[in-house]
Amino acid sequence: MNWTVVQKILGLLLMVFSLTMLPPVLIAMLFNEQTWLPFVEGFGITLAAGLLIWLPVRGVRKDLRLRDGFLIVAAFWTVLGTAGAAPLYLADAPSLTWTDAVFESMSGLTTTGATILTGLDDLPKSILYYRQQLQWLGGMGIIVLAVAVLPMLGVGGMQLYRAETPGPVKDTKLTPRITETAKALWYVYLAFTIACAISYIIAGMGWFDALCHAFSTVAIGGFSTHDASIGYFNSPAIDIVAIGFMFLAGINFSLHFFAWRYVSVKHYSQDPEFRAYAMMLVVLSLLVVAGLFYHQSYGKPGDTIIKGVFQAVSIATTTGFTTADYAAWPAFLPVALIFASFVGGSAGSTAGGIKVVRCLLIYKQGVREIARLVHPSAEIPVKLGNKAVQFRVVDAVWGFFSVYIVVFVVLMLSMMATGLDQVTAFSAVAATLNNLGPGLGDVSSGFMTLSDTGKWIAVAGMLLGRLEIFTLLVLITPMFWRR
């Protein structure tokens, strides 16, 4: 383990992250708010911490290995969540404990969208903007952005990129150089954000709300500047814009890049994961709308369709926006939506969950095993499209799924040990591990009722979900630390 290079990169990344606390200062000045001081103090503390970590090892020149990348990613997200909490903790409004500040910061950076705050409509604009910005930065990952910067500092980035994006498609590169890959992803991400903000403005939002909600929509985060979330605007046009961009943000961003580069959309129809993702959302939307019609939950057909499709797309993509109290819908609908969040969006998107491609491979593996019962001697490959998937990849997916379930059970039992009922504990873990946000039971309107222990368990779930479990769990295996 190259401890000095890990320390150097961690210090550099902290110093870069400190700069993200300055834009809220401009927002505070723009709205004539006297709330800029906590952000300046947070900037100074984070910058100083990064500088102190970096200075002793600034002259180190060593190659970064994959093992170092895992440690840097895990350490940085843990430290980043702590540093991001500083302005929230130092601010007079809202008045948060350290636990609550870390919870809110980690929820933002991991694009979970769970919150312990109430009275959002009355909070300073600078605080509201900062929460949304945290989600936007976490959406594609601070580490991926740093991959484009680190080569200029003499540090390679491929190891960080692989550690940040574990999974069956982790080695896919859009361009020959990893730096160019990171830049390409951010160009697409930025373009989607701008397009989303403009669309919200056209649909009727003010510029501030449009910018903030574009941040959380493209990041599939779910934070809002209002307690009623998107439902505050009571606008079908805004709901439709949100549905469209939530759907797009749940697609593998490499497909968006190819569509832009080659001015063609054929890559979408040719991608088996995209087809499965679109089919899942269509079927779920039809199920929800049919359920709402059957139980006559809304008087107008238009309201039934838009609210049903909105919540189906929002929860399935793990965005977490709400336009209705879906927890109060007929019993099977909220549970169906929560289960859909376990699938989540596509690999390579900003969504949470297990990811569509993994679930698709598990399904195809199941179909293959049934076929082998009928034809025991047949060699039946698992295919994605026309390509056979390596057995090693299928084994890795099953391993991930197994560990995901075990982690979920452990977190749920831990939540129940703090005094939560089964429904609340189940949905709280689903909401955090899947990076979803809203839950059921006592956490349907927020996580403010949880004990401090419950909140720290939720924070652990957010981190595990954001880094897709293995990146963190590998650090507790003896094999990782052996020479």
Describe the structure.
64% of the residues lie in helices and 1% in strands. The N and C termini lie close together (8 Å). The chain has helices at 3-18, 23-30, 37-54, 66-84, 86-90, 98-109, 125-140, 142-149, 158-164, 178-203, 207-218, 236-249, 253-262, 266-270, 272-294, 301-316, 332-343, 356-374, 391-417, 422-433, 452-466, 470-473, 478-481, and strands spanning 383-384, 387-388. Strands 1-2 form a two-stranded antiparallel ribbon. The protein contains 23 helices and two strands. The protein is mostly helical and 483 residues long.
Q: Would you summarize the structure shown here?
A:
This protein is mostly helical and 483 residues long. Helices cover 64% and strands 1% of the residues. Helix 4 (66-84) packs across helix 9 and helix 18 (356-374) crosses helix 19 (391-417).
Describe the SSE topology:
Elements lengths: L2 H16 L4 H8 L6 H18 L11 H19 L1 H5 L7 H12 L15 H16 L1 H8 L8 H7 L13 H26 L3 H12 L17 H14 L3 H10 L3 H5 L1 H23 L6 H16 L15 H12 L12 H19 L8 E2 L2 E2 L2 H27 L4 H12 L18 H15 L3 H4 L4 H4 L2
Helix pairs in contact: 1-3, 1-4, 2-7, 4-6, 4-9, 6-7, 6-21, 7-8, 7-11, 8-10, 10-11, 10-12, 10-13, 12-16, 15-16, 15-17, 16-17, 18-19, 19-20, 19-21, 20-21
Shape: globular
Number of DSSP helical runs? 23
Biggest sheet: strands, sense, closure?
Answer: 2 strands, antiparallel
What is the straight-line distance between the termini? 8 Å
Q: Would you tell me the structural class of the helices and strands?
A: mainly alpha
Q: Radius of gyration over alpha carbons?
A: 22 Å
Estimate the mean pLDDT confidence: 88
Proportion of residues in β-strands: under 5%
Largest sheet strand order: 1-2
Number of strands: 2
Helix content: 55-70%
Low-confidence stretches: none
